[in-house]
Design a protein that fits this description.
This protein is of the alpha/beta class and 311 residues long. The chain contains 13 helices and seven strands. It folds into two domains: 190 residues, Vaccinia Virus protein VP39 (Rossmann fold); 81 residues, Putative methyltransferase TM0872, insert domain (DNA polymerase, domain 1, Orthogonal Bundle), CATH 1.10.150. The protein is globular. It binds S-adenosylmethionine. The site of S-adenosylmethionine has 22 residues, from helix 2 and strand 2.
Length: 311
Amino acid sequence: MEFSHVPVLLYETIDLLKIKDGGIYVDATLGGGGHSEEILKRANCRVIGLDQDDDALAYALKRLTSFGDRFIALKGNFRQIRKVVYQLGIDAVDGVLMDLGVSSFQLDNPEKGFSYNQDGPLDMRMDSKNPKTAADVVNTYSEKELISIFYEYGEERYAPQIARAIVKRREKKPFTTTLELAEEIIRAVPAKARREKHPAKRVFQALRIEVNDELGSLEEGLVGAVELLKPGGRIVVITFHSLEDRLVKKFFRREENPCVCPKDFPVCVCGKKPRLKIITKKPIIPGPQEVEKNRRSHSAKLRAAEKLSFA
Ligand SMILES: C[S@@+](CC[C@H](N)C(=O)[O-])C[C@H]1O[C@@H](n2cnc3c(N)ncnc32)[C@H](O)[C@@H]1O
């Protein structure tokens, strides 16, 4: 299958990273290498590209081979960003980029099991070594657990109806494919919900987040990234749904203003020092032209912060 992915908010991202000669940058979500390529073109710098998907790594390696040893591709989860970079003998970097979620290549490849429009195995693992698939979640989690992940990770209002239908159906035959599940969800929701977005959209998002522990990885990845940054180094994060964006916003705010002393204390006694300065007071979003050219960019939000010199 042809690898196709249009990088989102490309020039905004590269400008915010302040790419410079001699700099070292981590593209923690390498994907098709679109952002990495632009970083490498911008200055005589180095890029460490990280991805947990073998197919993405293979494609990006081929695409960026002309940059020689300025580009290194590594397999790994960005929750271990520090460990992976330290293993290269590098103890600090000038910038980190996280362009979250899955690429168009992953979404459009039915074999990966992310699509509710095309049939494929109910998989959804970005890392094929991950032992848990979406089928495992759907066929083994209790009804209560399914309701909870559909509510929490999918913000799905019909979570109880959908979980009930899944549990009833799997008693007869476990789910194995994406369309089996999508069709069951369509049957489970009221008719009016079938007229708006695809009724399976939110449940598929929830399952993907659960299978890949996306929010847990993000929390750990952000902590690791900040520790890895040099003073003055920047972190840029592009999110695609409100759960991710909220997490990044809160993390940046906590790092900018970490004091936990009661408000009426005249001076800070908790000793927590700020480590970041937020660069984007409001998130940057794609303009209408970008959204028109690339529909998948419509929900993107970019936030950036800089590591403080004394942090
Ligand atoms: C939106 S795509 C990135 C696209 C890329 N910026 C480009 O221009 O082609 C996200 C990529 O990050 C990878 N990914 C998502 N979460 C990850 C994680 N926790 N650790 C490593 N890679 C991750 C996915 O496998 C996917 O290839």
